Amino acid sequence: MSVTVLLPQVLQSDAGGASRVDIALVAAAPAGGPPPAEGGREHATLRAVLDELARRHPGLDRRIRDDQGRLRRYVNVFVDSDECRAVGGLDTPVPDGAEVRVLPSVAGG
Amino acid sequence: MTYLLVIGTRKGLFTATGDDERRTWRVRGPHRLDSEDYANMAGVYAVGIDPRTRRILAGAESSHFGPSVWYSDDLGGSWHEPERTPIAFPEDVDASFARAWHFAFGDEPGTVYAGVEPTALFRSGDGGESFELVRGLWDHPHRGDWWPGAGGAAIHTVIPGRVGAEGTDPRSMTVAMSTGGVYQTRDGGASWKPANRGISAVFLPEDDPEYGQCVHKVAIGSDGEFYAQNHHGVYRSTDPAAGWTSIAEGLPTDFGFSYVTHPHVPGTGYVFPVVSQVCHLPPDGHLAVYRTEDAGASWHPAVKGLPEDPYYGIVLRDGACTDGAADPGFYFGTRTGDVFCATDSGGEWTRVAAHLPDVLCVRALEV
Fold first, then answer.
1. Which of B45, B96, B138, B367 is the most buried (most CB within 10 A)?
2. What is the number of alpha carbons within 13 Å of residue B34 lying toward its C-beta?
3. How far away is chain B from the Cα of A28, in angstroms, using its nearest Cα?
């Protein structure tokens, strides 16, 4: 399966200038069982997507997650149109073909 | 001769270059820490200048994208962030690095210490590009009792090599934290003991607790004497493990955040009084600096050249420093964005910069 991560301009330099990163993943699978489906589509967890993003661009990951792997408070990550915190956080299912959009939240003054 | 002043503010890093007299300054900033400019608006809570290499370290915290450390090897001309995250807690520690509060440099080349939030000490052996947690302090049995002050739970003073006025030892170190107080190691950081006897803790029920104080800043005099600006209380000590003596008499208030010592003259130093723990404003609504020349036995105002109008900005923990020159310059910045300088020979404050964002820290160098 594959997903596309969309980055805001402010983070693109940490991904070699890319505004989008296509990521191929092995779908999540319970031990000994077939890959689960989400609406008939394979899926991975958001954590797995970000882990693969971190493997490719470690300097980008530290902007999105802290040193314990938690999402930074003022960074929002949408899986298609759903902000992940409203779904399952880092365990949010990311279906095959989905767009994962990283956006800075409203903060500062 | 010129002088470089590095100014960390709530919104970015500034520098000022001064002439030989240190009366005329050129201010630049906010510096471009990153190519996308988001870090230019980050809060710069800690700045350090390596006395050997002149590398400048800046600990900056973006409200969106978290904290990191940037460095410059050309006196602020260009800035770089280490490829790998410079400060991070190990995976087995349930804590996330929030903010660097203070940098200090050890005797060995490349050795840098970072006091951070949450309360922890990190050590670097490569000039500040990567740091490792000092486990001995993190695992201290008192740690669960170190509560955050208003600024957060952090180590904001690190004094490598010293635990008393007599001599230095590379295995010794003194740190101060809010809250928690002063701790010292004599075995390279493996074990730590509190050194707070005589320091008040007005927010605790005990009269003389072993630890838990909120020691805002500890400074070392040129003779090795220790000085402390506490959360109510100003102190000196020849041997912190034995205890501290109050030197607050003669000051308008005993509350404040910073203490700066003269780099060459024993007993001379500056404090920046603040009304109280519940009123973080200058006494009587006027910018106040007090100087002692007799190790705190007496104090006198050192305000020549400072604004005489009502003033409400205060000086934070690392918001004052000296450049250490033969005729030293002393510097401080305020939360209302002004920065001042006075040389020891001149004695009169000159405004270096005005209308900056809140000044969080300053560090200076003769270049």
1. B45
2. 29
3. 24
Q: What is the CATH number of the domain that holds B119?
A: 2.130.10.10
Beta carbons of A67 and B38 less than 8 Å apart: no
* Count of domains for chain B: 1
C-beta of residue B258 within 8 angstroms of C-beta of residue B317 = yes
Q: CA-to-CA distance for B191 and B218, rounded, in angstroms?
A: 20
Smallest Cβ–Cβ distance between A63 and the set B41, B65, B83 belongs to: B65
Write out chain A residues lying below 8 Å of B69, CB-based: none
Predicted ipTM of the assembly: 0.86
Interface contact A13-B34, CB threshold 8 A: yes
Please say whether the beta carbons of B158 and B175 come within 8 A: yes
> A2-104 falls under which CATH superfamily?
Beta-grasp domain (3.10.20.30)
User: What pTM was computed for the model?
Assistant: 0.95
CA distance B298 to B263: 19
Cα B278 to Cα B202: distance, rounded to the nearest angstrom: 12
Q: What is the pLDDT of residues B71-115, one digit of tens each?
A: 999 999 999 999 889 999 999 999 999 999 999 999 999 999 999
Strands across the sheet with B56-62, in order?
A: B43-49, B56-62, B66-72
Query: Is the separation of the CB atoms in B201 and B213 below 8 Å?
Result: yes
Determine the structural domain holding residue B43 and report its residue range.
3-366
| Strand B339-343 with B66-72, pairing | unpaired
Report which of B150, B221, B204, B157 is spatially closest to residue B183, judged by C-alpha positions: B157
Say if the Cβ atoms of B64 and A108 lie within 8 Å: yes
- Residue B97 has which token pair? 């690095």
CA atoms of B5 and B16, how far apart (whole Å): 5
- The side-by-side arrangement of strands in the sheet containing B193-194 is B154-160, B173-178, B181-185, B193-194
Q: Tokens 């005797």: give the residue.
A: B107
